[in-house]
Amino acid sequence: MFDDFVGFNLRVDVYLLPQSAFPSGGLYFKNKKWVNETNGKHVIVHNNYIVGYNQKLKRFQDFGLWLVDDFSHESPLGKLEFVQEQNTEEKKQKGRGRKQTENRGQKQNIL
């Protein structure tokens, strides 16, 4: 179908990546024995099985896998920081479809 739509015959070969080189977060971060047995073979460690930017960043830092900041002086992005999470009240208001803003020192609810 896609080949006919594009107008030419496209062939794509698909291969599984070796788990020792590309482990999931569930395997890498929860199985120390496996990590030691495959030491030196890891190419990319997926940071899945965890939710949230700050939690992922902290886990990479805790395991010595966050190397970005060591070279931040070479990057046009500079140092990456933790993002400030919204507080609980803001989340509740968003859920109700309201946004709280400040106008001349007074808070107003905007629907």
TrEMBL record:
GO CC, any one term: Golgi apparatus
Domain Nucleotide-diphospho-sugar transferase: 10-60
Gene Ontology MF term list: UDP-xylosyltransferase activity
An example Gene Ontology biological process: rhamnogalacturonan II biosynthetic process
Region feature Disordered, mapped onto this chain: 82-111
PANTHER family assigned to the protein according to its UniProt record, in alphabetical order: UDP-D-XYLOSE:L-FUCOSE ALPHA-1,3-D-XYLOSYLTRANSFERASE 3 (PTHR47032:SF2), UDP-D-XYLOSE:L-FUCOSE ALPHA-1,3-D-XYLOSYLTRANSFERASE-RELATED (PTHR47032)
Name under which the protein is recorded: Nucleotide-diphospho-sugar transferase domain-containing protein
Organism: Brassica cretica (Mustard)
Organism ancestry: Eukaryota, Viridiplantae, Streptophyta, Embryophyta, Tracheophyta
